[in-house]
Each structure stands twice: as structure tokens, then as C-alpha cells.
């Protein structure tokens, strides 16, 4: 059984995502910090930034915090902006592109555990 957990914004470290251009990830809560069955991550996508086509074995639930950008999911493109929510099924080919002048930011909730990215050609 997990215990209650509070993490402060100042305690979150953000790292560049190697497989992407202009994407940074901060792990807000996951099993490593003492969380339960879910993980919450916060991503920022810089203006001009992009994430190549890739898949993950786990599903994603995302909530756009700020900015606007394009998400491709299984061959369809979607313009998203602050307040929008997304579901990306496990195994779906998806990608991101920020053509705007402002950074985009989103929360991503996933099952706890490994979330390996497999780049697509």
C-alpha cells in the first residue's frame, strides 16, 4: 500500500529527452518517489521543437497546460491547445511538433513502470 505523497514544484528536475528536439521531461510522481500504480510527468516542448514518430507499450493520458502544438496519432494530425485532453493508445505511432512562438506544456499520466520509446522510421 502506498503512502500519501506531496512533491513541491521546486523539487522537480527537468531533463532533455534525448530522442526529441526541444522536449524536456520532469517526473512529478512515480514509483521511485513513492507513488502508487500511476506516474505523472510534465513535458515542455520549445518553439520549433519536435518529437519524432515513436511508439510506447503503455497508453498515455495527456492534458495540455499551455501553448499550442500539433500531435500526430496513427496518421491523423490534431492541433491541440491549453485545456485539451488526449488519449494515446498503447502501441499507437505518435509524434509532436511545435510550430508556434510559445512553448507548449502538458501533463502525461501513465501506468507506473518502464516506458520505453521505440522510434519509427
TrEMBL record:
<dbReference type="InterPro" id="IPR053146">
    <property type="entry name" value="QDO-like"/>
</dbReference>
<dbReference type="Pfam" id="PF07883">
    <property type="entry name" value="Cupin_2"/>
</dbReference>
<feature type="domain" description="Cupin type-2">
    <location>
        <begin position="42"/>
        <end position="109"/>
    </location>
</feature>
<dbReference type="InterPro" id="IPR013096">
    <property type="entry name" value="Cupin_2"/>
</dbReference>
<dbReference type="InterPro" id="IPR011051">
    <property type="entry name" value="RmlC_Cupin_sf"/>
</dbReference>
<protein>
    <recommendedName>
        <fullName>Cupin type-2 domain-containing protein</fullName>
    </recommendedName>
</protein>
<dbReference type="InterPro" id="IPR014710">
    <property type="entry name" value="RmlC-like_jellyroll"/>
</dbReference>
